[in-house]
Structures are given as C-alpha cells and as structure tokens.
Amino acid sequence: MLYLNAAGLSPFHPDVQQTIADTLESFSHVLYSETGIDRYRSILQRSRETLANWLELDTADRLAFVPNTTTACRLTLSRITWKPGDTLLTTTHENSTILQELQTLKNYGAHVVSLDPDSSAGLLSAFEHALHQHSVRAIVVSHVSHLDGRIFPVEAIQQLAEAHHSLLFVDGAQATGHIPLSFRHFHPHAYFFPGHKWCSGPMGTGALILHQDGENLLTGSTLTKNHNASLPPDGRHCELGTQNVGLIAGLAKACSLKRQDGLRCQALKEIRDTWQSSIRKNARLRTIDTEEAQAPGILAFVCGDDPTAAAIRATGSAHSLAWKTFTHPSFPTCLSVRLSWNPYSSLSDLQTALSLFDTSLNT
Ligand SMILES: Cc1ncc(COP(=O)(O)O)c(C=O)c1O
Which of 83, 213, 247, 350 is most buried, judged by most C-beta within 10 A? Predict the structure, then answer.
C-alpha cells in the first residue's frame, strides 16, 4: 500500500505505541487501589497539561478528553435547548459524521442553513448575510476543510459570531497538529479534534476545548458555581465515565512530540508543490485551488470527465494507492481525489506514488 490518506488516519508512531503499552502495563499493577486511583488522576491531569501548554490554553481545566471529534460535537450540541426559529449555520464542507449530527437537530426544532464557501459572495459575506437574516443560535464550522484543505477564517467568523451573540463551535479535526493553532487570542465556545489525524496520536482519543461561556452551556455550571462551590467549574465535566489512561497518555506523548519536532509545514508544502505541478501537467485533471490559505498536507484534484475518473480509479487500485475519493460540492458531477501526508508519512512511498501517478496519467 502507498499511503496518501494521513488526513483520514495518521501513520502510527512507535513512541506513541510504546507509551500506551508502558502506561497500561504499569497501571495493571495498581488498578483501582488508592495508589492506582491517584495514578489514574495524575496521568489525566499531566496529559491535560501537556495538551494545554502545546495549544497555549490559559488553563488545562478547560480541556476535556473525548473519544473522537463526532462525540465532542454531539456532546456540545446536545446541551443546547433549541427554540423554534433558532438557526444553526454551517458549511457544505463539514464532514459527513458532523453533518449527520447537525441534521438530527432538526428534530429538536433547529433550522439548519449550510453555506457554500465557493458562493460568489465569498464565505464571510455569506456568513454575515445569514447572520442578519436568521436568528442564529450557533455556528458549526471546520477550521480546515477535510475536502480540499482550505483554511477557513475562523477568527473572523468568531468576530461575526460575537457581534451577533451566536455560539461558535469549531471542528479542528483537520487543523490541530497540522497548522499553527493557539488559544491565546482565539476563544470559540467549543473547539474539538481527534488524536488520530494530524496529532498522530492513537485512535479513540480526542479533545474538547471549552470557552468560559461554552463551559457554562455544557456543564450547567451557572448552577454549579452559584449553588455548589465545591465542584470545579471546568471542562472535565465533559469526560463521561472511565477514561482509557493508556490511550490518553499516548495522545499526550504524540502532542509533546509535535511540540518538540514542530509541525514541519514547509516540508509538507514542498510535497504539495511537487504533486500540484505534476497534476497540472494533465489537462484532464484540475487541482482544487481556493482563495483561502491552504493547509500544507492536503491537496485535492478533480477529474475532468468520466474516462479520466476511470483512469484514476484504475491507477489507484493497480498500485494500491490509499487516497480518498469523494464528490466535491463545487464539482458535483465529477470524481475528486484528496491526497494527504504528514511528517510521519514515508517519503519513499510518496515518491513512488508520484512516479507511478506520472507514468499512468501524464504519458
Ligand atoms: C473535519 C472532520 N470532522 C470530523 C471528522 C470525524 O472525526 P472522528 O472520527 O474523530 O469523529 C472527520 C473525519 O475524517 C473530519 O475530517
């Protein structure tokens, strides 16, 4: 297999695997003894602090571990009491599991409006217009599009959300560990991401970061704060039941490696540039380029006609190219392909894939 789907699932990192195994092995000797319970709590807290420091959060208490992005999304959205006429704004670029969550909100009275980032007005103007037109309770938007890697202007969207008193939830699945991210001046009500994509952590991990108001929304901590000062008013309330400390320690290890090694955006961009120029040589293929900034580890292209789509599919299966095929909302009748790589992708696999691609499609 030649792997070009790091945006779906990162290649595993041996140090992360080792941390998971070591943590569980050592925990197996103490289990839920008093020592074990102390150790369980301290692994969670240390891991929380590792992620919080990496992401420049003011306090680790606003970060909750979750099993994946979709669960975090459901958890946050399910705490909202929707009133008739409340609108939820989103985009046509959200992941299918998130869209499914949003669609279920219709059953609770929410009116869901999806904006097309490629609309002639542009995404921000479309948001502005929709915020004026509807009573927008919440906005759910990706930080980086999983379809074509464009970076959405989430800080500007935050300003619009604030001006219209709307909640802002950001899906960071394709952003965290991929592009620079800091919560020093960025404070959406909720931001969620998985461990297993760009953080290169284990499957079954992720995090939910809550703004102070998001915290109130989710935990009912207005009640907590006023009536029971002994309960900590923090995001840990979102961690439901027993956590897998092995996996969480693995996620923390992955994030500390990211912090130590950096995101290597320039190296990722060079790979992108090489693929982009190869694809552009073929008149029947078109790279999906956007006005917005692009994340460096993702490149999408669209096939101009059915025979080209068939050639792409044949090339993919003949050479076991693991890439993602999909339908891009701006090219609804064509096959599109998303290529993605991260710093742990095999460079020799990427080169082999590129030369096979060149030979099959550009000769
Ligand atoms: C942008 C985005 N959001 C959410 C998801 C779903 O993630 P998870 O499996 O962590 O729930 C994906 C998966 O590819 C994604 O790309």
Answer: 247
